[in-house]
Amino acid sequence: MALPLLVVVLSLAFANGANDNFKGVATLHGSDTLAYRPALAWATISTLAGSLAAAWLSGGLVSRFTGKGLVADAAVTSPAFLLAVAAGAAATVLVATRLGFPISTTHALTGALVGAGMVVAGPSHVAYGTLGRAFALPLLASPLLATVLTAGLYAALRQARLALGVTHEDCICVGQRAPLAALTADGRVLPVGGGGPGVSIDRPERCERRYAGAVLGIRTQSALNGLHLLTAGAVGFARGLNDTPKIVALLVGAGALGVHDGIGLVAVAMAAGGILAARRVADTMAHGISGMNHGQGLTASLVTAGLVMAASPLGLPVSTTHVSCGALFGIGAVNGEARWRMIGQVLVAWVTTLPVAILFAAFFALLASTVR
User: Fold this and answer.
1) Are residues 14 and 139 in the same domain?
2) Which of 1, 225, 245, 291 is most buried, taking the most CB atoms under 10 A from its CB?
3) What is the SS3 assignment for 130?
């Protein structure tokens, strides 16, 4: 069953890349710092770097997501169990990606571990206490923490900007206006003027806010853009560092591949998923949750990168999705541009991820046991 497991695990990695890769650069695209394709390229490079670094820095997550401590030891080495976990998580993430909802692969994997464990080992052999303490609590706490930290940090940075005398400027649209014309009774069209240059203020959502002036001799806007690129890259790196070992754990648990070989294959599949199928989730993350300017996007990136990078060496299974979306929720709350309807839909998708993954994995576990 090694080959089917490898195929299914790589499908999960592809789904993860499609749903998650763009999350690191969503603020770059949402604040109009980068267009979609350059943002996607930066997401791919930074995530790939994080995935490869996971071979040395994230051993705790590899061991946790083999299912040891959550499901009876006899089950975690079962190929049917691991196949069902990978298939259940992959199906859950692919459905969400198709619908354009950013969900947590960590959450999907957790539900799949439970669903497959209930079938393969029996409901009484699933450690529900461990599930709540080591898995559910970080997943619930991380978006709330990200929301609060982002709102607080943005307020502090805004006060610092004002104290330094850095102002902002709004754009206006300058260009040729089409000449006005009138239709005569005999069908002739006569120009009536209005063909010269015109100036107008664009719609607020199309108007890019930029920062004026300089600090320590450096143009404020240029410095902010450079820092935003670095922090967005750090989010991508942290996501690769945090998510790759969770997927590789399924191959390691089955003895199909070692950690280093598995990480290489998973990293490539994740990159492919992001390049080929990220657009719907990218639109939701960049524009569907909240409007943002450059400073607000930078703040969200700083908080997301800090929280996720701190979690990986500690072996805490926080979700980059929950953290990055929580940061966007915080920005929307403080700038008044939150899209509450979309936020509500994203929260519903989060709540249903765990039970959907449990059902998918249980189904695949039953199917695997029947086929065997």
Assistant:
1) yes
2) 245
3) helix
